[in-house]
Amino acid sequence: MVQFVEASLPGGLTPFVESMVGYRITGARPGTQIGMPSDTITLVLSLDAPLDLVDADGREGRHDAMVAGLHAGPALLLGGPAGELAGTSVDLDVLVGPTARRLHEQLSGTEGWESRFALVVEALFARREVTRRPRPEVEHAWRLLRRSHGRAPIREIAAEVGWSTRHLSTQFRQEYGHAPKTTARVMRFQESRHLIGQGRQLADPVDPGR
Hints:
Blueprint: E1 2-6, E2 21-25, E3 32-35, E4 42-45, E5 51-54, E6 60-63, E7 65-68, E8 75-78, E9 89-91, H1 92-96, H2 99-108, H3 113-124, H4 136-147, H5 154-161, H6 165-176, H7 180-197
Helix pairs in contact: 2-3, 4-5, 4-6, 4-7
C-alpha cells in the first residue's frame, strides 16, 4: 500500500520549489528503488529508517536527510551552487548545519502531512535570502532549455546569450554541474516519462507500407 500526498506550495516558493510530496509504503517487501535522472535538486527526509543510497558514481551513503544534485544517471535507493552537488548526494546538515537534525527530529514526532509540510517550509524556506544568483546569461540559457524541454539547439542558445558554445558549456557546467547538452538530454528524458505517464505515444506509428 502506498500513501502519497502532495503539498500546496506557498506562492513565494513556486519559483524555487517544483513540488513537495509525502509518501509512505507499507506491506511491501524490502527492495531496490531506482531514482531516475533529474534536472532538479532533490531533498529527501526519511521519517523511519535511514535511506541507503548508491549514487550513479558508485559512492554509498546512509542518510536521514539528504540532498541530491542534478544527475544524468540513475541512483539506487536500497530498501526503501547546484553544480557542487551534481551526480552525488550529501547529508542535509552539510548545507544547513544543525537545522537539519532538529528538523528531522521534529518531523519524526509530528503527525499529519500538512503539519510536516509546514515544518519543512518554516525550517528551510521561511527566512530564505538569495545570497547569490547565476550569471544572467547562464540563467537565461537554463530557462530556454526548460521552456523547450531540452529541445532548443545549444548553438542557438549560445548565440542568444552572446557567447560561444564552448564558453556557455564551461559557465553552465560550473553553475549546474553538467554541460548544456547533458542537461538537455535529461530534460528530454523527463518529458518522455511525463508523456508516457499520460498515456501519450512518443512517436507516430510507422506505416509498414511506406
